[in-house]
Design goal:
Transcription Regulator spoIIAA
């Protein structure tokens, strides 16, 4: 399995995840990508995936089949970067982006060493009961986090919506991490090893940010520009 998964490298970028493929038969590369996703389904849950396929030539059916297989795993393929004009045209026909924001070569080393500070997983939907998201960086959700849904992030968690599920920020022990949402009515909040009691729903909800205060306790307060 290690030899198969080495055919594709996956790393965080500004807009989600980037899969870079080596020179190998496409079927082997496709299997390698899906194998990595199947090994860590919670990590890839709700992810936005871009692919750098080099000079490989793809037809519509190739990308449609892979897009469907990724969709079954709750992964969104949004961009294909290629040196092939045919592949670029195919991608555009399918409504996929053909350019992404990559770190400059001189930034690569710094980027790799600070992944939890520089990367974020963007989720453009509501997380429903039974959904669990894990990510080694920040997580941003444009939607609600429903009861029974969980987010575990090594960095911060920002929810542009209502939180009623469980959120754990600073999962590797970063006590400076924070959680903020438009409505913070969570079943449980956790930052590093500090755990909150259930937060009661507010009648007139306001944006709040949860962090560990100077006394070492997890607390929530109004979220405004001065908090960050």
């Amino acid at each position: 399995m290690e030899q198969i998964t080495s055919l594709v490298q996956i790393k965080g970028i500004r807009d989600g995840l980037l899969a870079t493929f080596t020179e190998a038969p496409w079927d082997d590369q496709r299997i390698a990508l899906l194998a990595q996703i199947d090994e860590r389904p919670s990590f890839f849950q709700g992810a936005r995936l871009a692919m750098d396929v080099g000079s490989q030539v793809f037809k519509v059916n190739d990308l449609v089949d892979l897009r469907d297989q990724l969709s079954e795993r709750n992964v969104v393929m949004w961009a294909v970067v290629s040196e092939s004009p045919t592949t670029n045209q195919t991608s555009q026909l399918l409504g996929l982006a053909t350019r992404i924001s990559k770190p400059r070569p001189e930034e690569q080393r710094q980027f790799a060493n600070t992944i939890s500070d520089d990367t974020a997983l963007f989720i453009n939907k509501t997380l429903r009961s039974g959904t669990r998201v894990e990510y080694p960086g920040h997580v941003v959700v444009m939607g609600d986090v429903n009861p029974g849904a969980e987010i575990v992030a090594e960095g911060n968690v920002i929810v542009w919506g209502r939180v009623r599920g469980m959120i754990h920020a600073g999962a590797k022990g970063n006590r400076s991490s924070f959680i903020c949402a438009l409505d913070l009515s969570a079943n449980q909040l956790r930052i590093a090893d500090e755990i909150s009691a259930m937060l009661k729903p507010q009648k007139d909800s306001k944006p709040e940010i949860a962090s560990i205060n100077s006394e070492g306790r997890l607390q929530a307060e109004l979220w405004h520009s001065g908090n960050s």
